[in-house]
Amino acid sequence: xxxxxxxxxxxxxxxxxxxxxxxxxxxxxxxxxxxxxxxxxxxxxxxxxxxxxxxxxxxxxxxxxxxxxxxxxxxxxxxxxxxxxxxxxxxxxxxxxxxxxxxxxxxxxxxxxxxxxxxxxxxxxxxxxxxxxxxxxxxxxxxxxxxxxxxxxxxxxxxxxxxxxxxxxxxxxxxxxxxxxxxxxxxxxxxxxxxxxxxx
Amino acid sequence: xxxxxxxxxxxxxxxxxxxxxxxxxxxxxxxxxxxxxxxxxxxxxxxxxxxxxxxxxxxxxxxxxxxxxxxxxxxxxxxxxxxxxxxxxxxxxxxxxxxxxxxxxxxxxxxxxxxxxxxxxxxxxxxxxxxxxxxxxxxxxxxxxxxxxxxxxxxxxxxxxxxxxxxxxxxxxxxxxxxxxxxxxxxxxxxxxxxxxxxxxxxxxxxxxxxxxxxxxxxxxxxxxxxxxxxxxxxxxxxxxxxxxxxxxxxxxxxxxxxxxxxxxxxxxxxxxxxxxxxxxxxxxxxxxxxxxxxxxxxxxxxxxxxxxxxxxxxxxx
Lengths: 200, 318
Description:
The complex is a heterodimer. Helices cover 83% and strands 0% of the residues of chain A. Chain A contains 9 helices and no strands. By secondary structure, chain B is an alpha+beta fold. In chain B, strands 1, 4, 5, 8, 9, 10, 12 and 13 form an 8-stranded mixed beta sheet that branches. A 5-stranded mixed beta sheet of chain B has the order 3-2-11-6-7. Chain B is globular and about 45 Å long. Chain B starts with 18 loop residues before the first helix and ends in a 13-residue tail after the last helix.
């Protein structure tokens, strides 16, 4: 049985592989005719996928009783931040070329950009308080409260994706369904199950 | 002797990159990045040269731009053709053998006209003098290409049908055949795709019916066998794989207007000052280029077409 640390290395490589693939594909001309659009879109989609994966860990722990799964949560969470930063940088650089007045106008005028921007901003405190040191400093209870923002970020990210799609909303809808399911599991666990137990 | 007048928007011939050099630019970039081995890796479905039959006796047009051409590979692998799926790559894969050569391609021309008819594709084009028209193509999504179309003025076909005084608009319809066009099995848009032009826009000499590109017959993914090209409007106006051209009195309800009337208008002229609600239209990325460039009013064809819209509020009629 591999140790947690060995498994962490494996998970790290798995989480990094989309970025490695995108870099490789970019330099070998496999991203099609508009590679900049492709990496911008892909980095955003991967941030959302890792966010949903992170939100899967707690329900998996409840379901299987494997407490160890939670030890990967910080890493997958930080990978969400990694892909989100990449996504944001690609937008600021290759879409807007750091034209701050245009960027500001974009954020104010276009709801899907506004929502994406808010979502990214909310990720910042989560990434900054991800260390053990910060957890201690904030205290477990407050840290937990703060990190509930993850749910809001997930909702806003799904909305951001849904709003930018032109005609076929299948992919964002899949993510919305997954998120809805993951939230429903939590609601059940926290509200419905205690009620049922109390009655019996 | 015919002296070709240099139009103000045209670049001199000397500015045009040699086509071979241009086609090989990626190889150049790759080796520069120290990964020359990657240059040998083909994109499995992409052809970098035309494979269809070549047209002969094609004449040049003074409407052509002399800007650097987008590569054949990019033009034929980055397509919005929802009849073959919603990704940019799907049409190149799924429309490879479109249209089925066993089925004759018929184009019906009818509505408010005195000389309607239904024509087999080859009969329709037999009478036409083919021209190469090198046009800019600006997609509503913020990217653009320069494409060497082969075609002929739409006006020639329309005039032969003798439109009557009620013909205020022209409505175009794409083939509906989910067996050949698998994307039509999903209702991402109302099928068949419908587009339209005002009669003066349709009669304008810049408006063409295109049957090929890069000197060869039209690839399936680009709208074979016959499509519209209206270079001063966003790309979705240039309807592909046409089976019906109809003169009508009322403004046609076009596919994208029907799908989302607050975001897409009937006119859809390229206009850097009128944003799409979800993205700015002030700049565009020319496919193959790194930096974005400014989008030009009427996609740079203002000199020819601005008069069509004199006195119209282009913010209202977007």
